[in-house]
Amino acid sequence: MVAAHPGDTPVHVALRTSDVDEAKAFCRQAFYGPLQVTPVGDTSGFAFAGEVVVLGPITVGVISYGVDIHVAIADLETSYHVLAPLTGSLRSRHRGTAVVADPTRAAVYRPVGDIDLDWPGDCRLVSVKIERAALERELDAALDQQIVSPLLLGESFDLADGPGRTWLALVRLLHAESCAEDGLAARPRMAARWRDMVISGLALTVEHPYGDEPAGLQGPRRPRTVKRTLDAMHAEPWRQYTAGDLASIAGVGVRVLQESFRQHVGVSPLAYLRRLRLDGVHQELSRADAWQVNVSDVAYRWGFTHLGRFAGAYRARFGESPSQTLRERR
Prior knowledge:
This protein is of the alpha+beta class. The chain has two domains: 8-136 and 155-205, Jelly Rolls (Sandwich); 222-327, Arc Repressor Mutant, subunit A, CATH 1.10.10. Helices cover 40% and strands 24% of the residues. The chain has eleven helices and 14 strands. The protein has helices spanning 20-30, 132-143, 162-179, 188-205, 224-235, 243-250, 254-264, 269-286, 295-301, 307-318, 322-327, and strands spanning 11-17, 35-39, 48-55, 58-64, 69-73, 79-87, 90-94, 97-101, 105-109, 115-119, 124-131, 145-147, 156-158, 218-221. The strands form three sheets. Strands 1-3-4-11-6-9-13 form a seven-stranded antiparallel beta sheet, sandwiched between helices. A five-stranded antiparallel beta sheet has the order 2-5-10-7-8. A hairpin with a 2-residue loop joins strand 7 (90-94) and strand 8 (97-101). Helix 5 (224-235) crosses helix 6 (243-250). The chain is globular and about 65 Å long.
């Protein structure tokens, strides 16, 4: 039986407040640090309501402010994002393109370029953040080929019909179940499957050129041996694989697998696994409660057994120590 990963358990946080600064702090912690919220005009009716669920690499929130606001967000860098209004509409500007999102059309944001939102008081929406690596891995796996990062996604998609309607219904059901203590999402394996469906569903819903315009957009197809190994590592990154274990999964010799990885991935299998684990630790520390989380516990959960080597590799990859990442959450 496969053990549940710590990221498979939903974390539910909620806030209702008439305090602008309290609402800002909540949104920054739940979504992005460099997020600016500025009320426009009369603030006497300010009534923020936010209910957010974090499930591994996805964050889903239902958000409203009660008054007209302006939101400015610097480059997302680490995530893709979708805003889907349930009531009202909002106007967004991103990478030189203006999109009006309403209950019939969602707005999509890539992890490059500043975002400006004019958010009316009557707009209540679903906000979906998906970590960059998770969506890119999903589309990469679906196409069985390397792709350009960040993904070349369309700026919006239809919510009234087709896959967009189904995807939003799936997201809303996941959110509702994760907010309920006795819901199906409280079961880690069910939550993990739900999470994966949200990610893969978005990859199938949003417009992209991959598979249609190969010139300059698609990389070489990866051998099945490499893909099988990648799938195994992403399924259980904390497992203590050896080079021989991974070669057995691939069905080839160690040297053959290493050469295939260097050619098609750019690093050896174990180097890729170490980077995958480091990214997992970084993501967990970045969204953790600094008063309740221990760095060594997180490192062990992700498969690191030598904390000294782990700390050195972490600093080399992210330019700071694990404890510094965690302290930023305080």
